[in-house]
Amino acid sequence: MEAGTNNAQTTGSNGPSLTREQFLQAYQDMVLIRRFEEKAGQLYGMGLIGGFCHLYIGQEAVVVGIQMALKDGDKIITSYRDHGQMLAAGMTARGVMAELTGRATGYSHGKGGSMHMFSREKNFYGGHGIVGAQVALGIGLAFANKYRGTDEVSIAYFGDGAANQGQVYESFNLAALHKLPCIFVIENNLYGMGTSIERASASHELWRNGEPWGVPGRRVDGMDIAAVHEAAEEAVAHCRAGKGPYLLEMMTYRYRGHSMSDPAKYRKREEVDAVRKTRDPIEHVKQILLDSGVDEASLRSIENDVKAVVNDSAEFAQTSPEPDPAELYTDVLLEA
Ligand SMILES: Cc1ncc(C[n+]2csc(CCOP(=O)(O)OP(=O)(O)O)c2C)c(N)n1
Ligand SMILES: [Mg+2]
């Protein structure tokens, strides 16, 4: 199986379904995530980030394409590979970087770190370290949307490694039974830590996993922003119309190790290089923009702006104070 495999079930884009302005915005958002993650990797190497840290590099088109199909009030929940989701949801680079470095100005006041950040304002509900647990919480968020009589949807992201967890199937059942507006997004990057999906899953067609409960599913080329966006629009329309949950399997790839300590023995360097060279989601958008007449200078200017935002976030984080020990027991619970 390959990232963005184009087989019979994979939906790729049939030409640009986004406007040039949307592609430009997507480019900026994706470059922000990539540069931010590179900087986080650097700060980790310098000992400024403690604990776990899972980078999202390579998977940027998934969150950015989905976010473009959402509106204010829609809710997002994900796993520990969460920095991309936060930035796509509109959380600030400063607040996320400060949290990564354990500072009082971070989203969890420096007490949550990489895996435990939240923003009620941006409807981002974490950041969860227990594999698969966020899926059951995600249908709870969808239940709240329905109970309150809104047409808001909830997005529950999880990985290929989480996809065969029992609670994921329990969530499919409850979501289908109660017609909950939940979009299940499997980010299939082909590996759970160091185990390939080929070795861990009897089914390699995860988009079909909701079939017993009648949950419609689609496999999508997750390296193609337009394909992601188009599929997300369809899933969102389905949920907003009260038709119940929807499952999207995004074929994607992570370039870096599972976390910051990764033996890198479970895949060949050539495999990673090949995806980088031929399937990179940012290069893909860049090419579309260049082909549509946008000049290199405009793209460079976007890149420079992003670099400034990321550098500023690192500076802000490093000059922010650590939390006061008196805050140890505050912010443990929040009325939702
Ligand atoms: C319940 C549980 N079991 C095991 C782990 C250890 N663990 C952390 S991440 C991971 C792999 C998950 O892979 P996947 O769902 O594909 O997500 P990805 O890391 O690829 O984004 C495992 C087994 C855990 N955190 N929680
Ligand atoms: Mg995975």
Automatic annotation (TrEMBL):
GO biological process: pyruvate decarboxylation to acetyl-CoA
Cofactors, names only: thiamine diphosphate
Catalytic activity: N(6)-[(R)-lipoyl]-L-lysyl-[protein] + pyruvate + H(+) = N(6)-[(R)-S(8)-acetyldihydrolipoyl]-L-lysyl-[protein] + CO2
Keywords: Oxidoreductase, Pyruvate, Thiamine pyrophosphate
InterPro entries (alphabetical): DH_E1, PDH_E1_Alpha_Subunit, Pyrv_DH_E1_asu_subgrp-y, THDP-binding
MF annotations from Gene Ontology: pyruvate dehydrogenase (acetyl-transferring) activity
Keyword Oxidoreductase: yes
Keyword hit for Nucleus: no
Dehydrogenase E1 component domain mapped to chain residues: 29-325
EC number: 1.2.4.1
Pfam families, sorted: E1_dh
Annotated function: The pyruvate dehydrogenase complex catalyzes the overall conversion of pyruvate to acetyl-CoA and CO(2). It contains multiple copies of three enzymatic components: pyruvate dehydrogenase (E1), dihydrolipoamide acetyltransferase (E2) and lipoamide dehydrogenase (E3).
Assembly and binders: Heterodimer of an alpha and a beta chain.
Protein name, UniProt field: Pyruvate dehydrogenase E1 component subunit alpha
Organism the protein comes from: Acetobacter indonesiensis
Source lineage: Bacteria, Pseudomonadati, Pseudomonadota, Alphaproteobacteria, Acetobacterales
Gene name of the encoded protein: pdhA2
